[in-house]
Each structure stands twice: as C-alpha cells, then as structure tokens.
C-alpha cells in the first residue's frame, strides 16, 4: 500500500505543476483511481472497471485526490 501511496502522491504533484503553453500558464488537476492485479481483478476488463469505480470515488473527494479500489467491500481510501 505504501508504494501505491507514494507513487500516487508523486504523480499528482507532477500533474499539478503549472505549465507554460503559448505564453499562458496552464494548471491541471487529476483524480486517480487505483486497482491492482490480482487483488482487484485478474483480467484487463475487471481492472479497468474497478479503477473507474475508484476514480469516481476520488472525484467525490475533490480535486487532486486518489482512491484505492475497496478490498472485500471495505472503503479503502489511501491516506
């Protein structure tokens, strides 16, 4: 879980940096959903569905957040 947390935070930090495009400063935010093989699915379709569920939960939390797919019907928001 620690690796997912650290990687997710680094990814969000990188995405949140301001970008200069055609002399305009652009700010981007993201909502990440995490599903891991084989814990959350053993095929691509199940993993994508579960990652999408986690992403929707992340969006409900607000901008620049990430959410891990629940394990065994438990809410598992990554701290």
Q: What is the secondary structure topology, with strand pairs?
A:
Elements (H helix, E strand, L loop, with lengths): L1 H15 L2 E3 L2 E3 L4 E4 L9 H18 L3 E4 L11
Parallel strand pairs: 3-4
Antiparallel strand pairs: 1-2
List keywords for this structure.
single chain, 79 residues, alpha+beta, two-stranded antiparallel ribbon, two-stranded parallel ribbon, 2 helices, elongated, disordered C terminus
Would you kindly provide a written description of the structure presented here, covering whatever features stand out?
The longest helix has 18 residues, at 44-61. A hairpin with a 2-residue loop joins strand 1 and strand 2 (24-26). The strands form 2 sheets. The chain has a two-stranded antiparallel sheet. It has a two-stranded parallel sheet with strand order 3-4. The N and C termini lie close together (10 Å). Helices cover 42% and strands 18% of the residues. It has one domain (2-68). The relative contact order is 0.21. The chain has helices spanning 2-16, 44-61; strands spanning 19-21, 24-26, 31-34, 65-68. With 79 residues, it is α+β, with helices and mostly antiparallel strands. The model is unreliable at 72-79 (pLDDT under 50).
């Amino acid at each position: 879980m620690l690796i997912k947390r650290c990687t997710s935070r680094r990814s969000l930090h990188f995405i949140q940096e301001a970008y200069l495009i055609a002399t305009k400063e652009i700010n981007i935010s993201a909502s990440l959903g995490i599903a891991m093989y084989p814990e959350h699915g053993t095929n691509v379709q199940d993993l994508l569905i579960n990652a999408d569920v986690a992403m929707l939960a992340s969006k409900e939390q607000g901008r620049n957040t990430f959410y891990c797919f629940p394990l065994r019907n438990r809410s598992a928001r990554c701290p």
